[in-house]
């Protein structure tokens, strides 16, 4: 289980990591339509109370990610990727069991805390991809992770809504079963990707915290600027789960079915880009070029979404916005080249901590302007205001990437 993987075993390992990433995102997708309704049922059907609890759940989960991701990332550098990935998958399964059998809201709350503390399977899986791919093929490997993200968010809400019709706890039981089966498969099959001689020699608590993660970003040329690009992108991306369902219903009068089909079309477009476009674009223009194309496409797509006066024009933005699938493969490819093999986990932990910050502040950043815009719609008529804010963040990320996303000089040895 701890041997270095080569050849065909790399492909098998990438297949497992792909499935793990799908499970991670699928679980988030399942909760989109299910968790608010379950919380509402505990709150006596009061929507306002349910909204308060859902915001609390999301905030606490982001806080746990912020503090715990650097610890888990450094643990994967010290003890290997395999134990951290398996711990995270097991934590996901336990979290779903908490939700399935929770007798009160506080039990749900404990489950979300536990999951936030252990939810490092996606970030550690990214470090695993960096271990088993060459720098030249790394963007393609991260494209596979992006495809997993698209699959999870495309079919997760559909699965959650379908199972909810039969029993309100069934979606959580099914996801718990899938996660625990995935854990069993990984326990018996998944090899270790980071051999002992390439690991950190000791676990340093000075590095295993958000401040230590920022120090890692500062210690490598250009890495802090690239992390800033990733943070702006993640913050802008938070507009999607925060306001888009409400926005489409308010502006275009779309019901749940139309919104669901639109989200599915968006997810399928993302999968196509990850599977068919990422590799070709990176080969043609490099990781920096792919990153810039993805960021500017996100800016243009958000502008269409915010300003489209009709639903048909809104849909015209879907193909353009799907090119944001180029962002993470290009960005991760550039970032992983700048750190040593025994720092890949710490890097991904730092990225997850940044994502935790964006998850904490994102909902308020977009929901408050949206509420203001629709309250003053008669005079302001700008329901797309939060999406314009997201577009501005994407444009800022594009300019920052133009300045900071430089390939390593040819004379500088690669450390990853």
UniProtKB/TrEMBL annotation:
<feature type="transmembrane region" description="Helical">
    <location>
        <begin position="384"/>
        <end position="403"/>
    </location>
</feature>
<feature type="transmembrane region" description="Helical">
    <location>
        <begin position="223"/>
        <end position="247"/>
    </location>
</feature>
<dbReference type="InterPro" id="IPR005829">
    <property type="entry name" value="Sugar_transporter_CS"/>
</dbReference>
<keyword id="KW-0813">Transport</keyword>
<comment type="function">
    <text>Resistance to tetracycline by an active tetracycline efflux. This is an energy-dependent process that decreases the accumulation of the antibiotic in whole cells. This protein functions as a metal-tetracycline/H(+) antiporter.</text>
</comment>
<dbReference type="GO" id="GO:0016020">
    <property type="term" value="C:membrane"/>
</dbReference>
<feature type="transmembrane region" description="Helical">
    <location>
        <begin position="53"/>
        <end position="72"/>
    </location>
</feature>
<comment type="similarity">
    <text>Belongs to the major facilitator superfamily. TCR/Tet family.</text>
</comment>
<feature type="transmembrane region" description="Helical">
    <location>
        <begin position="113"/>
        <end position="130"/>
    </location>
</feature>
<dbReference type="InterPro" id="IPR011701">
    <property type="entry name" value="MFS"/>
</dbReference>
<dbReference type="Pfam" id="PF07690">
    <property type="entry name" value="MFS_1"/>
</dbReference>
<dbReference type="InterPro" id="IPR020846">
    <property type="entry name" value="MFS_dom"/>
</dbReference>
<feature type="transmembrane region" description="Helical">
    <location>
        <begin position="170"/>
        <end position="190"/>
    </location>
</feature>
<feature type="transmembrane region" description="Helical">
    <location>
        <begin position="142"/>
        <end position="164"/>
    </location>
</feature>
<keyword id="KW-0472">Membrane</keyword>
<feature type="domain" description="Major facilitator superfamily (MFS) profile">
    <location>
        <begin position="13"/>
        <end position="408"/>
    </location>
</feature>
<dbReference type="InterPro" id="IPR001958">
    <property type="entry name" value="Tet-R_TetA/multi-R_MdtG-like"/>
</dbReference>
<feature type="transmembrane region" description="Helical">
    <location>
        <begin position="12"/>
        <end position="33"/>
    </location>
</feature>
<feature type="transmembrane region" description="Helical">
    <location>
        <begin position="289"/>
        <end position="306"/>
    </location>
</feature>
<keyword id="KW-1133">Transmembrane helix</keyword>
<keyword id="KW-0812">Transmembrane</keyword>
<dbReference type="GO" id="GO:0022857">
    <property type="term" value="F:transmembrane transporter activity"/>
</dbReference>
<feature type="transmembrane region" description="Helical">
    <location>
        <begin position="352"/>
        <end position="372"/>
    </location>
</feature>
<feature type="transmembrane region" description="Helical">
    <location>
        <begin position="259"/>
        <end position="282"/>
    </location>
</feature>
<feature type="transmembrane region" description="Helical">
    <location>
        <begin position="84"/>
        <end position="107"/>
    </location>
</feature>
<dbReference type="InterPro" id="IPR036259">
    <property type="entry name" value="MFS_trans_sf"/>
</dbReference>
<protein>
    <submittedName>
        <fullName>Arabinose efflux permease family protein</fullName>
    </submittedName>
</protein>
